[in-house]
Amino acid sequence: MTELTDRYVWAAVRTVPEPQRSDLEPEIRELIEETVEAHLASGEEPSAAERAALVQLGDPERLAADYADRSLTLIGPRYYLAWMRLLKTLLATVVPIVTAVVFLAQFLGQGEVGAAIGGAVATALSVTVHVGFWTTLVFAILERAGATDAGLEWTPEGLPALPDHSRHGRLPDLVASLVFLGVLAGAVLWQQVRSVVRADDGSVIPLLDPALWSFWLPWFLALIVLEAGFAVRLYLRDWSWAAAVVNLCLALAFAVPAVLLWSEGRLLNPAFLDAVGWDPAAATGGGWTVASIITAVVVLIAAWDVVDGFLKARRASAPVPRHPVLVDH
Amino acid sequence: MDLDADLIAGHLQELRRGTVVLACLTRLRTPDYGYSLLESLDGLDIQVDANTLYPLLRRLEKQGLLTSEWNTAESRPRKFYRTSPAGDGLAATLAADWDRLTTSLHRLAEGELP
C-alpha cells in the first residue's frame, strides 16, 4: 500500500455518495492488492507491479461507476429518441414563433427593419441555445433519476404519414402558389388606384413609379400570369427537369429586373417617398440600408425557389421503386 | 477475406456477455473471493477482467444472487462470495437455457430446417 494506491482508491470512492464509501473502499483495495499480487508473482518489481496493476484496472471513476451501476452517458438509449423528437419539435415551433413575434414587436414599435431583423436574429440564437440546454438538462436528470418514461413512449398513432406523390398531395402547393400570386397581382394594381398615401388634393400617390407602367409593371403582371399557369401545370404533371428549368427562367425574369430596378432606385415612386418622408438608402441601426436588406432577401428567396425546383425535379424523376413505401425517404 | 480483428472481438464479447454470470453463480456454490474465482475461471478458459468481475460480483450480491462475508483471518482481508438459494435457482434456469440454445445451434449447423 503506497500513496499511489491511496490516491487511486480516493479517486474512485469520492465519486459515490458518502455512506457507500466505507463499503466500497475495502472492495477496491482488495481488488488492487490482488492485482498487484498477480503482477508480483510474474516477477515484477513492487513499484512497477503496483503501477502496472493500476493501469490494468483503468480509470478509477469508470471502475466506481461500474460498482455503483451508474450510467456513463449524458442521455442513454432509453431516452435518446424521446429527447431527439422533443428537441426537434420545440426548435421547429418555439424558435420561429418567438422570432416572428420579436421581429413584429420591434418593427411595429420602432419602425426600423434592420434593427428588428437584428433583434429577431439575436433572439432566435438565444432561444435555440436555451431550448437545447434545458431540454437536454431535463433528460440528463431523467436518465439519472431512473424515472419511468410515462408519456414518452412511442405509439403507432405517432407514425409519420406516407409521402403523398399523387396529384392530391400537390394541391396545397397549387393553392398556396395561386393565393400568393393573386395577392401580389392585386397589390400591384391596388397601389396604383387606391394607395394608402394621398396628396394634399386627395389624389392617390402610388407606391411604385407610374413611369414603370410603360413596360416593367405589365412585364411583371404578365410574369405573374405565367407563374400561375406554371403552378397549374405542376399540379397536373408534377415536377420534371424541364419544369425546373422553366422555373429557373421565370425566377430570373422576375428577380433580375426587380433587383436592378430596386437598386437603381427606379422602382418606388419619388412622390411617394417624399410624401412619407422615407429614404430606403438610409442606413438603419445595423449598418445595413433597408434597400440592401430587401435586395438580399429577394435574391435569397429567388435562389431558394430555383434550388427547390431542381430538388423536387430530382425527387420526381427518381426511378419508381417496386415498393411504394420506400420512395426516397 | 480476413475479418477485422476488432469485429471478431466485438461479436465474441456479445456472445460471451451473459456466460460470466452463469459461470460465477455455478462456481460460487463453493465460497471464494474475487481473484481466486478469476484464476479458476481463467484456468477453464473463461476469460474475464478483474475490473469487470469485481463490480459484477457486487451487483449480483445486491440482486440477492450471492451472499458475502469478509474473511479477516488471513494476512489480507478478502470478501468471500457464495451463491444464494436464489442465485442457485437462476443458475439452473440459465444453464437449462444455455443447453437448449446449444442444441438448437447444433441442429441449425447440421442443416436441419424447421
Give the secondary structure arrangement, pairings included.
The complex is a heterodimer of chains A (329) and B (114).
Chain A: H1 3-13, H2 18-41, H3 46-57, H4 60-68, H5 77-110, H6 113-145, H7 167-193, H8 216-237, H9 241-263, H10 270-276, H11 290-317
Chain B: H1 5-16, H2 19-27, E1 32-33, H3 34-43, H4 50-62, E2 66-71, E3 78-83, H5 85-109
Antiparallel strand pairs in B: 1-3, 2-3
Explained architecture:
The complex is a heterodimer of chains A (329) and B (114). Chain A is mainly α and 329 residues long. Chain A has 3 domains: 66 residues, no CATH class; 76 residues; 160 residues, no CATH class. Helix content of chain A is 70%, strand content 0%. In chain A, helix 1 packs across helix 2. The longest helix of chain A is centred in the N-terminal third of the chain and has 34 residues. The model of chain A has no long low-confidence stretch (mean pLDDT 83). Chain B is an alpha+beta fold. Chain B has one domain: Orthogonal Bundle (Arc Repressor Mutant, subunit A). Helix content of chain B is 61%, strand content 12%. Chain B is built from 5 helices and 3 strands; from the N terminus they run H-H-E-H-H-E-E-H. In chain B, strands 1-3-2 form a 3-stranded antiparallel sheet. In chain B, strand 2 and strand 3 form a beta hairpin. The relative contact order of chain B is 0.14. The model of chain B has no long low-confidence stretch (mean pLDDT 91). The chains are: A mainly alpha (329), B alpha+beta (114). Chains A and B meet through helix 2 and helix 4 of A and helix 4 of B.
